[in-house]
Amino acid sequence: MEEKIQQQDVPHYFKRPKTQNRLQTIVVREFQQADNLKVQQIFYDGMMEMVADTAFRGLKHHPESLLLYTAMTVLCFVITMSWWVIGLIPAIVLYGRYFYSRRVIHRFLAHALSRDMGDIAGFYNKSPESCLWVAVLEGKVVGIVAAVGQQNSRGAVELQRLSVDRSYRRHGVGVALGQKLLEFAVTHRYSCVVLGTTAYKPAAHRLYRGLGFRCVGFTNGHGTPGARLDLLERIFYRVRHHHYKLNVQDVQIARALKMVSTDIVGVQTTELN
Ligand SMILES: CC(C)(COP(=O)(O)OP(=O)(O)OC[C@H]1O[C@@H](n2cnc3c(N)ncnc32)[C@H](O)[C@@H]1OP(=O)(O)O)[C@@H](O)C(=O)NCCC(=O)NCCS
User: Which terminus of the chain is less hemmed in, N or C, by CB atoms within 10 Å?
Assistant: First the structure.
């Protein structure tokens, strides 16, 4: 009975990663220099998935952009009086959104690679406030996540750079990386974990909610670190930043961490449910 109550209290993020049911262990460890290329590849691929996500899926989340494109269409019609031109506009808009999303995201990647992702050991190992971990499965690096303590928001640590190799998704790697970061937040006595995402696909949002995060708001805009946008980029690239937060001191988390700290990297197959 007591066990049943405890299991109900355990948030979804402490369920055992699925892969362990198949007797495979996901090991989450700190970054080593030999991981560099693979880590950069996983980060790059994860970010490039955002291009289509932002360009196409994002469209239905931004009625203001749809309004702008409609106004542009009407203006074009007034100027050209040509149905032929009007018929081409949806294709031009979609191409423009794809092209400019790709351009902005490339610039963001270049910025990240000239900063932390270009010198991972130098950036993440230089202080105890930050760390980058890799998930290893079947001997391969298959996922990454980073923690960066926030200078301007005391007690907060930010989850960044979460990405999992496409071939190893839905095996619990994202959860294992998230758990590692929560463990770091608890042991370093942070009061909360924060993160921001511009993803529209449900995967990241479900993962974060499953880990215990709450969406505390969102901001619409064009802002992306390392990118100053020109007019066309502002017309065709618009994102919604979702802000998530998790209070580390949550009694449930501390309790659950105690419960799993010894078997988090074990190969037991019992599933907490
Ligand atoms: C988001 C991401 C990290 C998830 O990694 P993952 O290893 O596949 O995640 P897990 O297997 O641990 O899944 C955990 C939960 O996330 C949710 N989830 C993961 N992938 C999902 C998908 N394709 N569709 C819907 N929900 C999904 C589910 O709730 C899942 O739990 P369940 O399998 O019990 O239903 C991965 O899809 C990714 O790298 N995406 C590209 C980069 C990205 O979006 N990064 C985060 C945004 S900044």
Answer: N
**Cα distance between residue 224 and residue 108, in whole Å:** 7
Please give the distance, rounded to the nearest whole angstrom, from the Cα atom of residue 129 to the centre of ligand 1. 26
Residues in the ligand 1 pocket, defined by CB under 6 Å: 46, 49, 162-164, 169-175, 197, 199, 202-204, 206-207, 210
Instruction: Tell me the domains of the chain and their CATH numbers.
Output: 2-260 (3.40.630.30)
Structure tokens at 161: 């750079």
The pTM for the full model equals 0.85
Separation of alpha carbons 268 and 69, rounded Å: 55
Distance 162 CA to ligand 1 centre (A): 10
How many angstroms is it from 202 CA to the middle of ligand 1? Answer: 8
pLDDT in tens, 139-179: 999 999 999 998 776 799 999 999 999 999 999 999 999 99
Q: Report the nearest-CA residue for atom 15 of ligand 1.
A: 207
pLDDT digits (tens, 9 = 90+) for 190-231: 999 999 999 999 999 999 999 999 999 999 886 666 667 788
